[in-house]
Write a structure and sequence with these properties.
This protein has 246 residues and is α/β, with parallel strands linked by helices. The protein is built from eight helices and twelve strands. The structure holds zinc ion.
Length: 246
C-alpha cells in the first residue's frame, strides 16, 4: 500500500494544498497524519476539514491538544496563548469534536507505529538525536515508527544492535529502502512550518510492501499564508519564520 505521510500541517492551507497536488502523481491509497493539524497558521478549520475528507488516519499533536483545552495555557508565552485562543475560535463544533476524538496514544498499522512526538511520550517528546531514538526503540513493538513534532525530516536507523542508531538526513527524491532486519524511526518533516532552513513544505510517500520511503519538498505560495496570518493578526514572528524555514 502506498501511503501519503503528513505531519505538522499547522493550519497552513496553501502548503497542504500544494502537497496534495504534488502527491497525486504517487497514486497513494491511504493518508497518515502525525498530528499538529492546527496551531500557528491561519486556516485551522479548513485544514481539519481537508484531513477529515481524506479519511486520514490521524493522531493528536501537542498543538491540537492545547486547542482542545487539555493543558494549562497560562504557562504559554502571551503570543502562543493568543494563537491558541484564536485557533479555538476558528474551529467548527464538528471539527473540534473530531480533534477531540483523536488518539493520544500511538497507533499501529502493520509494521508501522504512528505517533506525534515519540512512542514513549506521544504528545511531547522530540526525537532530534540518535540517543533519543535509541531510548525509544524499546517503546514500540513494530519494526518501524513514524513521528513528527520536530518539523525536521529525519531517519534514525538501528541496523543490528540497539547500541548503534545512526541518523540520516533523507535526500529529497531519493528512494530509501527500509531493510527487513532494521528498526527505524522516520520523520517526514512538516507540511506547514518546516524548521530545517528549507521553507518548502515537506512530506513523504511510504510504500508499506516495497518498504520504501520517499522524502518530498514542494514550494508553495508562502506569501498567501503570510497575508492570511497578518489579516488574522497572528504574531509577526510566526509569520516571518515561514520565509526562512526555521
Ligand atoms: Zn508541530
Amino acid at each position: 500500500m502506498r501511503v501519503l505521510v503528513l505531519s505538522d500541517i499547522h493550519a497552513n492551507l496553501a502548503a497542504l494544498e500544494a502537497v496534495l497536488a504534488d502527491a497525486e502523481q504517487f497514486d497513494y491509497e491511504a493518508v497518515w497524519c502525525l498530528g499538529d493539524t492546527v496551531g500557528y497558521g491561519p486556516e485551522p478549520d479548513q485544514c481539519v476539514t481537508q484531513i477529515r475528507m481524506l479519511g486520514a488516519t490521524t493522531v493528536v499533536g501537542n498543538h491540537d491538544w492545547a486547542v482542545l483545552g487539555h493543558m494549562d495555557i497560562d504557562q504559554f508565552n502571551p503570543e502562543a496563548r493568543r494563537a491558541v485562543v484564536w485557533t479555538r475560535d476558528q474551529l467548527s463544533a464538528e471539527n473540534i469534536a473530531w480533534l477531540g476524538n483523536l488518539p493520544s496514544q500511538p497507533l499501529v498499522r502493520g509494521a508501522f507505529t504512528l505517533t506525534h512526538g515519540s512512542p514513549r511520550d506521544p504528545v511531547w517528546e522530540y526525537v532530534l538525536y540518535p540517543a533519543t531514538a535509541r531510548a525509544n526503540l524499546d517503546h514500540f513493538a513494530t519494526s518501524f515508527c513514524l513521528v513528527g513534532h520536530t518539523h525536521v525530516p529525519a531517519l534514525y536507523i538501528s541496523q543490528e544492535q540497539v547500541s548503534s542508531v545512526r541518523a540520516l538526513s533523507p535526500a529529497v527524491d531519493k528512494l530509501f529502502t527500509l531493510e527487513n532486519s532494521w528498526r527505524a524511526i522516520l520523520n517526514p518533516g512538516s507540511v506547514g512550518q518546516p524548521r530545517d532552513s528549507d521553507p518548502r513544505a515537506a512530506y513523504a510517500i511510504l510504500d508499506t510492501e516495497a518498504r520504501t520511503w520517499l522524502s518530498r519538498r514542494v514550494a508553495y505560495p508562502i506569501e498567501i499564508t503570510q497575508a492570511h496570518m497578518r489579516s488574522a493578526r497572528l504574531p509577526e514572528r510566526l509569520i516571518n519564520r515561514l520565509s526562512f524555514g526555521w
